[in-house]
Specification:
- By secondary structure, the chain is an alpha+beta fold.
- Helices cover 41% and strands 19% of the residues.
- The protein has helices at 4-12, 27-44, 54-66, 73-99, 152-156, 162-171, 211-226, 253-262, and strands spanning 102-115, 122-134, 139-145, 183-191, 199-204.
- Helix 2 crosses helix 3, helix 3 runs antiparallel to helix 4 (73-99) and helix 6 packs across helix 7.
């Protein structure tokens, strides 16, 4: 895990960060707005062919998501033009995938898997951006990224395991309304909205996803943290520090770093 202390603070101490007053537009907000528009489009057109005005429909969903923030110059003049480019790329990709055997899309769905632990079962939950069911009944796991995408190596060695966990849940039928099935593809869609390259599909686990291996890895992690002597360290691997660290001040990372530098 990249930040065990954050899990301790959030799930055990039940501490939740408050949103700042007059929060300025930031990368997290931009990602949320793009996700909201794409999710609504997929929920509206989960199966079969797209309507002739698919691009206009996606732009309408975008306007609904971005609308409350359009008074911000950065949203109106930078984010929205990029979303228009993303929308054009997305509708082309949506049409292509439907022609390539896509049967149904499940967008923004919750799921869970129960893992065995020394002190009892532990339930791991996830919310998937997108799960696709194909004509051969196999599943694709997809996550939208408006920012940096983890490397395939980091995903496959467990350093970034969000999609691997989602794939395990999907393979065992743990997502709402999604039939269990083998996972054929795991993908990050990097959607920047750049004119030269609006979106890029980056496959993970290209040698195949092993659900049994993933379950074993997670259950070993559960066993380790079931041990009372295991500490919930903050950012134990400096090279794997997560981008958002709302509990960093509670862990006193800066103070510990200053003391280490003084030594």
């Amino acid at each position: 895990m990249t930040d065990p202390y954050a899990i301790y603070a959030k799930k055990i101490l039940n501490l939740k960060p408050l949103d700042p007053i007059d929060r300025p537009p930031d990368a997290a907000l931009r990602g949320n707005l793009v996700h909201a528009a794409l999710a609504q489009f997929a929920k509206t057109y989960p199966t079969a062919a797209l309507p002739d005005d698919a691009l206009a429909q996606l732009l309408n969903f975008g306007k609904a998501a971005f609308g409350p923030h359009m008074q911000q110059p950065s949203v109106k003049y930078f984010w929205w033009p990029r979303f228009e480019i993303i929308a054009a790329w997305m509708t082309e990709e949506e049409a292509r995938r439907r022609q390539d055997g896509l049967i149904e899309i499940y967008a923004e769905i919750n799921g869970s898997v129960d893992l065995a632990g020394p002190s009892g079962s532990v339930r791991v939950t996830a919310r998937a951006d997108r799960v696709e069911r194909c004509a051969d009944q196999r599943l694709r796991i997809i996550d939208y990224k408006t920012g940096v995408v983890p490397s395939a190596t980091m995903v496959e060695n467990g350093a970034r395991n969000q999609l691997s966990v989602e794939a395990l849940i999907a393979s065992e039928g743990g997502f709402d309304q999604v039939p269990a099935g083998a996972v054929s593809q795991i993908e990050y869609w990097q959607i920047s909205g750049g004119r030269a390259q609006p979106g890029t599909i980056k496959p993970m686990h290209t040698n195949g996803f092993d659900s049994a291996k993933m379950r074993d890895s997670l259950e070993r992690l559960v066993a380790a943290y079931d041990d009372m002597s295991t500490c919930y360290l903050s950012e134990p691997v400096p090279s794997l520090v997560p981008p958002f660290r709302p509990y960093k001040h509670l862990a006193r990372c800066r103070e510990w770093q200053i003391e280490a530098d003084d030594d």
